[in-house]
Each structure stands twice: as C-alpha cells, then as structure tokens.
From TrEMBL:
Domain of life: Bacteria
UniProt signal peptide: none
InterPro entries the UniProt entry points to: Cro/C1-type_HTH, Lambda_DNA-bd_dom_sf, TPR-like_helical_dom_sf
Entry protein name: Transcriptional regulator, XRE family
SMART domains from the UniProt entry: HTH_XRE
Gene Ontology MF terms in the entry: DNA binding
UniProt xrefs under CDD domains: HTH_XRE
Lineage, opening ranks: Bacteria, Bacillati, Actinomycetota, Actinomycetes, Pseudonocardiales
Length: 406
C-alpha cells in the first residue's frame, strides 16, 4: 500500500505561506498569473516540471515541492499514490533545474559595485553620457530578471534596478526632461515597494519634493517629505527630506519654520555615521549640510550667512588639482554669491559669479533655471530700470539662450 502524502496543491500552498508569499507575490516572482497559482493550489492545474522546479526555488523548498509533485498522480486528481511509481532518477534531474541560475553571487556583487559607481559619478559626469551607461546597465539587469534566478537574486536585481531607475530619473530632470524623470520616479517607487526596499521608496518621494520645489508647488513638498520619512525613518534620506522641507518653507517666507527644520535636520545628520562613499548621490554626508543651509539662508534674505556657507561649499567642492568634485553644487554656490553681491550693490561682481555658474559643463538645467529666475527677480527689485544692471542682464540672457525648448 502506498504512503499517503499531501497533494501537490497542498504542498504549494503550505510552502508559499511558509515563505511569506501571497498568491500575488508568487505569481509576480514566477511570471505567472494569480489565477494559475490559485488553480494549482486547488489541484485544478499542474504546471510542467521546469515550472515546478522554478516554484520550488522561489519558495525555498529545497526539493520538497518537486517531491510532492513526484508523489502526486499524473492525472490531475490530486489523490496520493505510491512514491515508487516514479523513476528513481527523476528527482535528481529536477533538482538540477532548481539550482540553475543565470545570475550568481559574483554577478550580483559586480552589478552592485557598478551601480554605486554610477551613482557616485552623478555629481560631475556629463549627464547624457551618465544616462546612457545607466540605461545600458538597467537593460542588462532587466534581461537577468527575465531569466532563471534564485529568490534572493531576484530581489537583489530589483533593488539594483531601483537605484538605477532613481539615477536615470535625476539625470533626466537635470537635462530638462521632467516627464521622463517622473516616469522613472514612478518606476523606481514601484521597484522599491515590490522588493520591500523602503529607502528606494523614500528617495522616490524625495524626487517628488525636488520636482515640486522647482515647479513652484511649495505646499506639496511637506506631503512628499513626510511620506518619504515614513518609508525609511532610519535612513539618512530623512536628512535630505528635511532639507527639501526647509527649502520649501524658505521659498514661502516662513523664516522661523526654516530655522526649526534646519535644526532638526542637523540633529538627524548627527545620528548617522559618515558614509564610506560620500560622493554617492543617494548618500547624505555632513559636507552637504552647508549646501542645504546656503540655499535656505539666501532665500530668507540672510545673505551674510548664505555667503559663508557658499564659500564653504566651494572649498569642499575643490579637489587638490583645482578641479571640482561637485560642479552642480559649486554652480549654486556661485549664484548664491551673485545674489549677495547684487544685494550689496556690486553688479559687476554678481555678473562674474553668474558667468562662472552658468559656464559649468555639468549642470542641472531645471535647478539653474529656477535660480536664474530668482536672481532676475532680485535684479529687477534692486535695480529696476538702471542701465548699470546690463552686465548681469547679459549673463542671464546668455544662459537662457542655452536652455532646451519646452
């Protein structure tokens, strides 16, 4: 008499629940539909052996699901049968399929390292070149995701894809492509949620806050920063979110709230260790705080304090050989000094600072456009109708002539 065992469907349901998967989770990971998972668990459908091997791998069954299939009837009834009815080497063949993968730990490590390097190049590299390489890397990760991989590898690949998509979105926005950037941001948020990576989700909200700031939607910023902080409360991204919240308050003229948020952000910064790769765009390091404070103090009219922070930003951006490790930050620092010079009546000095800022090869077009508008507004306020404003007006006009058509 045969040994009574659970049916394939019963085994699939038990192992799925033990792995912490919903039917939808397993369907997504296995490139199935949820109805197929439901039918298989109800013994109304039996997948082929290669799919069973894939399912066994995804739920970390170590061959138990394959064994359940071998011990079940081949007619779909789900009734238990004698295990000796199957050939003795069949399970060995399927076990080899279970451990088959086109990825491997070494590939994951290499992809992780390359992705971090690309994120570190964001601050200085030509935007179009960086986007091309990040897109190529993302396409390669996508091909790996469509092939055989372990459950851990599948998640790791989704996390890598999430970081790459965030990076592409940031570069697209720098290039003046807001629709492309928003599409990438949404995709990154989805990848973060599906892989259970709260930090990627939080950075997608940070991007929303950044977009809102540059589109004059200041009141929306707090909604995004709060959502981002909830997604990854223990990550350093909360410092960046605080900075964006402070900038929004500064643009609305809420000076007291700016000071409160900056103090809170500085406290949060102190709770995190210095990163090993501070140049990574998605890592917050103490050197960035001068950059955040500079922007806020300029906006609330404290030009002396803003200038102090701007000079510190320039100092920190300068490499020993005189080149700049953070040209976009340096450009914003120079525009901050241009505003301060203008407020003190030094139009020639303001024009010189603006010329340097606008001539940088690596720039965020969207952000510099916003700062150029701010400088123009201050110029009209301070020197309305004054012929002496011409040098700065010429620099602003020359910059706008380089902007992509909308």
């Amino acid at each position: 008499m045969g040994v009574q065992v659970e049916t394939f469907g019963e085994a699939l349901r038990r192992l799925r629940l033990a792995a912490g998967f919903s039917q939808a989770d397993l369907a997504r990971a296995a490139a199935w539909s949820q109805s197929q998972v439901s039918r298989a668990e109800g013994n109304r459908f039996t997948p082929d052996e290669s799919t069973i091997a894939r399912l066994d791998q995804l739920v970390r069954a170590d061959g138990a699901l394959v064994a359940a299939h071998l011990m079940s009837t081949s007619n779909g009834s789900g009734a238990p049968v004698n295990a000796t009815d199957k050939t003795p080497w069949a399970i060995s063949d399927i076990m080899r399929q279970i451990h088959r993968t086109d990825v491997g730990g070494e590939t994951i490590d290499q992809l992780t390292a390359i992705t971090e390097e690309l994120c570190c190049e964001y601050a200085w590299r030509n935007a179009e070149d960086l986007r091309r390489d990040a897109q190529a890397q993302l396409e390669y990760v996508g091909r790996l995701l469509s092939g055989p991989s372990t459950l851990r590898e599948h998640r790791d690949l989704m996390v890598i894809a999430g970081w790459l998509t965030l990076l592409i979105g940031c570069v697209d926005y720098d290039l003046g492509l807001p629709r492309h950037a928003e599409s990438a941001r949404i995709a990154a948020s989805q990848l973060g949620r599906e892989s259970g990576h709260g930090e990627i989700v939080a950075w997608s909200f940070e991007m929303s806050a950044w977009f809102a700031l540059t589109q004059d939607r200041y009141r929306s910023v707090s909604e995004y920063t709060e959502a981002g902080s909830k997604a990854a409360p223990n990550s350093s991204v909360v410092v960046q979110l605080a900075a964006q919240a402070a900038k929004a308050q500064a643009r609305m003229g809420n000076k007291a709230e700016v000071s409160r948020i900056l103090d809170e952000g500085h406290r949060l910064l102190g709770e995190h260790e210095n990163p090993s790769r501070p140049e990574n765009h998605f890592v917050i390091d103490p050197a960035k705080w001068d950059f955040y404070a500079m922007d806020c103090y300029r906006l609330v009219g404290e030009h002396g304090r803003a200038s102090e922070h701007a000079h510190e930003v320039l100092r920190l951006s300068r490499k020993p050989d005189g080149s700049e490790r953070s040209p976009m930050r340096a450009s914003e620092a120079r525009l901050t000094l241009a505003v301060a010079a203008l407020e003190s009546g030094d139009v020639e000095g303001a024009a010189a600072w603006a010329r340097q800022a606008f001539s940088a090869e690596r720039k965020s077009v969207t952000h510099l456009s916003m700062l150029a508008d701010e400088l123009t507004e201050r110029l009209h306020h301070v020197m309305a109708g004054d012929p002496g404003a011409r040098p700065l007006e010429d620099e602003l006009a020359a910059f706008r002539a380089t902007l992509p058509s909308r």
